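Exercise 7. Given the encoded structure of a 442-residue chain, write a plausible sequence.
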């Protein structure tokens, strides 16, 4: 824990915001994808377990693709850098297929078509994720990466707000436009795809990878880095990875069903259902940068554990929300606002966890294996994303069979709270990765 106020490098916020354009593209697509793809699938599939299983297809691809591409980008050497070629090859492609996604979910579409679109979209999007994220630690010194990750996560939160608060309500708009035709269920995805391409052009135009990161090094051996993480004397990196596996189990268990929960239990339209992740994104946005600064003062591990406690409390409130609102007789609209406020608080805590966990791993890495550590982060988080939706879907089906659909859907909040509590316990054993730890490479 540091008692001195950090002195940020000159131009810190300008360069970090520009680097954050890559993360902006992910933040724009992910909430819309997680909210509406399950709704699209529900037109073709009735079982929540099957919907959860289909939602893991992209994560199964990401489980292996992100570490492989991240490692390849570590060892790429071109005139425009080592991350940028991968970004230029994959991010615009993901924007194009994201725009096409709702066409598979229309009545004229099919289950096969939407699965094919999901597969190709995520082939591009998940290949892009590692290089996009590794661009920041290649440029920012280790002691300032919590602050920088806060800025980048703020960019992602702004994108999520644009997608969910501004674009999601356009799902209900019925217009006929040239080339596009009917806009209902299509317009948010089309606009988002265009914004992804524009953000990529701006990123390439204004960001240059640092000379230190682009310096040619001996080829990184994946096995040596894995041995360092899982077989070294300090098990902090391994414990962080295990913790994030459990907190992503909790997060990914709720996320795919939030749109369905909002529509079927809280009684809102498809357009308003998109406000659920929007409320999370607003909370995320407000605390992302301050949480990085707070972590520099009080310690990353301490901030993460405090916020995990807050997340558990918010999830238990979500579980109790519907019966409590009915018991006190609040109107449906007021109950919906209360639920959004709880999600807002959840978002503040969740953003703080994400802002500070990645820098803890990067603190233990070097320029030569930064991509590998980034890939491991996504290997564990995507492993949770694969495992959790079928598990939470099965929980819904099980409790729906015994107690009815409302109770079944509410049980995802209890499931998530248990996973977050386990992550809290594991983080208690982490000792490394703080801002004043000896960085592997300056």
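Solution.
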């Amino acid at each position: 824990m540091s008692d001195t106020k950090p002195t940020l490098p000159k131009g810190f916020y300008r360069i970090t915001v520009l680097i954050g354009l890559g993360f902006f593209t992910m933040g724009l697509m992910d909430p819309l994808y997680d909210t509406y793809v399950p709704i699209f699938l529900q037109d073709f599939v009735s079982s929540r377990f099957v919907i959860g299983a289909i939602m893991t297809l992209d994560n199964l691809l990401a489980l292996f693709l992100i570490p492989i591409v991240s490692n390849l980008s570590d060892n790429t050497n071109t005139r425009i850098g080592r991350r940028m070629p991968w970004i230029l090859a994959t991010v615009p492609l993901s924007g194009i297929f994201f725009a096409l996604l709702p066409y598979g979910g229309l009545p004229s579409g099919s289950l096969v078509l939407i699965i094919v679109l999901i597969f190709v979209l995520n082939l591009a999007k998940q290949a892009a994720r590692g290089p996009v994220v590794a661009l920041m630690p290649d440029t920012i010194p280790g002691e300032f990466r919590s602050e920088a990750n806060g800025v980048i996560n703020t960019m992602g939160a702004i994108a999520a707000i644009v997608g969910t608060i501004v674009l999601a309500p356009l799902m209900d708009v019925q217009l006929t436009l040239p080339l596009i035709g009917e806009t209902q269920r299509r317009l948010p995805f089309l606009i988002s795809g265009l914004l992804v391409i524009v953000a990529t052009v701006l990123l390439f135009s204004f960001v240059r990878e640092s000379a230190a990161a682009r310096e040619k090094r001996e080829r990184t051996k994946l096995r040596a880095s894995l041995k360092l993480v899982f077989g070294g004397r300090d098990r902090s990196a391994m414990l962080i990875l295990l913790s994030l596996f459990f907190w992503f189990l909790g997060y990914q268990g709720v996320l795919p069903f939030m749109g369905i929960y909002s529509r079927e239990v809280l009684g809102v339209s498809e357009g308003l259902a998109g406000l659920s992740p929007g409320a999370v994104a607003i909370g995320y946005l407000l605390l992302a940068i301050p949480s990085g600064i707070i972590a520099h003062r009080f310690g990353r591990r301490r901030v993460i554990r405090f916020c995990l406690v807050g997340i558990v409390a918010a999830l238990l409130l979500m579980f109790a929300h519907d019966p409590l609102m009915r018991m006190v007789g609040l109107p449906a609209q007021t109950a919906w606002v209360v639920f959004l406020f709880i999600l807002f608080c959840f978002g503040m805590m969740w953003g703080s966890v994400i802002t500070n966990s990645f820098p803890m791993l990067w603190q233990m890495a070097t320029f030569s294996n930064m991509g590998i550590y980034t890939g491991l982060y996504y290997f564990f988080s995507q492993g949770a994303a694969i495992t959790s939706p079928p598990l939470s879907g099965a929980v819904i089906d099980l409790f729906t069979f015994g107690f009815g659909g409302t109770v079944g859907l509410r049980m995802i909040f209890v499931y998530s709270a248990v996973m977050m509590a386990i992550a809290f316990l594991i983080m208690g054993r982490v000792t490394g990765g703080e801002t004043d730890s000896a960085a592997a490479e300056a």
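Remark. The domain at 12-427 is CATH 1.20.1250.20 (Growth Hormone; Chain: A;). Students should compare their own answers with the one above.
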